[in-house]
Amino acid sequence: MGEIQHEWLQELYKTIHCYKPQFIALHFQEVGGKDYLVNMCHAENFFWNIVSSEEMKDFDRVVSYVDNQFQAEDSFTALGSIYFIHRTLKNILQYDFNEKGFKMVSGQRKHVGSLDLVTTVEKEKFPKNFWPNFKWSRKGFMRTRWIIHNQGLDLVNVHLFHDASNLIACNSSPSIYSANRKNALRYVINRYLVNILTPTPPCALCFGVQHLSTSADVQTVKKDSSNEVEKIICEDKDNDHQVLLHIEEKLFTYVHQAVFREDNGRALLKYDNEATAFFDVILEEDIQFPPSYPYSEEYAKPTQYMNTRCPAWCDRILMSHTAQKCIHKRDDGEKSVIYNTVGSNVCMGDHKPVFLFFSLKTNEH
User: Where does the Inositol polyphosphate-related phosphatase domain lie (predicted)?
Assistant: First the structure.
């Protein structure tokens, strides 16, 4: 894990050095990981190592929010958001939701805990009735509001629901999990039509047997004690019954895994359609990177996917129509928007972080 953390940080610093941003928004979900009772303190140390690092010394203002109150089951989201402001960026203000006004940002502001009394952030856990048939999880969202170069910007860190079972996800299209994600994201949008949502995992790739050979034989295995599906196995009848695809609740193995990496998985993007339901209010830059999840956590296998879930573009940056027009507004005609992953050839854990780089036009006179 130490090697992965070191490489993760180096890739982050390399990306920052390459693009030289003046404002950085780092949004994290599942702070502390699955075993957050044990790892929360390590996660916090990880954040503070970034803040105090030599590579970030020119960012003289830092605002951080970490929801680590796992004892508060009704409100704990395990979300973390850290904002870095470069010393050359002078005109920046942050909104106080209690006083309903903007204030200048100065120094380092570290907010760790329940965040309920912090007035510069809004945080909420999704209501339990959003998924009544599943275990209530830590999914939720966190919002901050900024003025940069006299332009307003809402930043929302959203963590949507995952596919708890590959088998249930195969039952219908869209799946029940897709419906849960749709309801949750619409809930956030209705709460406040945001300028930018970043990052959010609204989509799971719908990957069907149509990608398999025409000679594939699909077998459904059910449990002896019930009619419940236990596994789905696709074999190639013309190739000594080679197993092409094997799906169980927590297992997804596909023999032609390279299809997810070739041409950045472009051939499969047509199945990635959950976000299209929201294109009336939010948009996304063109995806030109492979599915961001679930990568192997083995240090020596940085480009290989784990056999746990169908690879999908689970990490996304969405924005309102107004925000997209704003980030594409340049006087010099040069392309200023980059949408990509960090550490494509380095082990970054099971998710490849996704970033959006853009330049705001200065409205100062």
Answer: 1-364
Q: What is the spatial order of strands in the sheet that 23-28 belongs to?
A: 23-28, 80-85, 61-67, 108-113
Please identify which residue in the block is written with the tokens 């069907």: 208
Query: Considering its fold, how many domains does the chain have in total?
Result: 1
Is residue 240 one of the residues assigned to a domain? no
pLDDT digits (tens, 9 = 90+) for 236-262: 887 777 898 999 999 999 988 889 999
**Domain enclosing residue 353, as ranges:** 1-204+266-358
- Report the predicted TM-score, pTM, of the whole model to 2 decimal places: 0.89
CATH number at residue 344: 3.60.10
CA-nearest of 271, 262, 326, 261 to 296 is: 261
